[in-house]
Amino acid sequence: MSHAMQQNPPAPKLKRRRGKDLIFLIKGLLGFARMRLNGEISSGEDEEEKEAGTTMFSAQKVVVGYALTSKKKRSFLQPSFTALARNKGIYFVAVDLNKPLPEQGPFDIILHKLSGEEWHEIIEDYRQKHPEVTVLDPPDAIQHLHNRQSMLQDVVDLNLSDCHGKVGIPRQLVITEEKDPSSIPYEVAKAGMKLPLVAKPLVVDSTAKSHELFLAYDEFSLSELEPPLVLQEFVNHGGLLFKIYIVGETIKVVRRFSLPNISKRELSKVAGVFRFPRVSCAAASADDADLDPNIAEHPPRPLLERLAKELRHRLGLHLFNIDMIREYGTKDVFYVIDINYFPGYGKMPDYEHVFTDFLLSLVQSKYKKKLTT
């Protein structure tokens, strides 16, 4: 019996140690779970995503606030896009315009495309006070593209020598608001502009009217137009337009049917000003059409890369597209006729993957900067 009593004392110590081990294990598991929720530890699935080419941030939650018109929201936040984004840890949250922006979030990125001075002031003030949030894009830079005169000036200033082509803009004339419409024919003749002329509203905003285009076959019919507007010489381009989408450093090119060539014979027989629809819509896609290779061939890649890089830097924008045409009968003479901020990316092939990768790259870049500072 005394022997049994000598053998029993270690047992309670073992139970206490096991109890401590169990508590330690539970605490460890809770800590691990907490770290998983915070994105500090990645799961096997996340590792598979990383091996598939996504960034180390795919396991973390990236919150993207958006302030978009209802039309832009429908075209951009398509189910296929938002589902892919969620799978990569990106969550889109609508900005409540009835609440102060600093009280919302926290956001990693804000996407916006709203017009009006009030919103301009709100987002610019937020951007200045919250440098940790990436705002796409700075409102002052966007404003630059709201004027068709200033938007193309950056193209004029480019020097793209040794880039397998020449890029310019059509000759253009600005008719300011104070000009009497009856004086437009005189202004055109004084400037030596050649007919036909494309007429566009000077100011670009979210209204359909700002995207109305007219083709004038004779000078006198120009007095029917309402200033302010921009007149551009029409350049024959084989009825094909290149829509060049820019998303950060990614470039995608699609072809759209455009206005057909206008011969001198036709010009001599037709008079008047004709309104024509937006030719760059998705319904006018020419990517699958059987076209003359001399017309359909994409602009040289080195030229596009240099052009996109220069305009990103000069405009200070990440999200825009360029409408470009090739002068008919040439191989390497191109004209930029329009630049648009935050265009209809829903019409761009594979936009879901391009855009999610872009958003993740912004977060990755921001994280790397923190590590180096």
Describe the structure.
With 373 residues, the protein is α/β, with parallel strands linked by helices. 38% of the residues lie in helices and 21% in strands. The strands form three sheets. Strands 5-14-13-10-11 form a five-stranded mixed sheet. Strand 13 (319-326) and strand 14 form a beta hairpin.
Taking the alpha carbons of the first and last residues, their distance comes to 71 Å
Indicate the low-confidence ranges by residue numbers: 1-58
Total count of helical runs of at least 4 residues: 14
Give the total of beta strands. 14
Share of helix, binned: 25-40%
Inertia-based shape? globular
InterPro entries: Inositol_tetrakis-P_1-kinase (IPR008656), InsP(3)kin_ATP-grasp (IPR040464), ITPK1_N (IPR041429)
Cofactor: Mg(2+)
GO molecular function: ATP binding; inositol-1,3,4-trisphosphate 5-kinase activity; inositol-1,3,4-trisphosphate 6-kinase activity; inositol-3,4,5,6-tetrakisphosphate 1-kinase activity; magnesium ion binding
Keywords: ATP-binding, Kinase, Magnesium, Metal-binding, Nucleotide-binding, Transferase
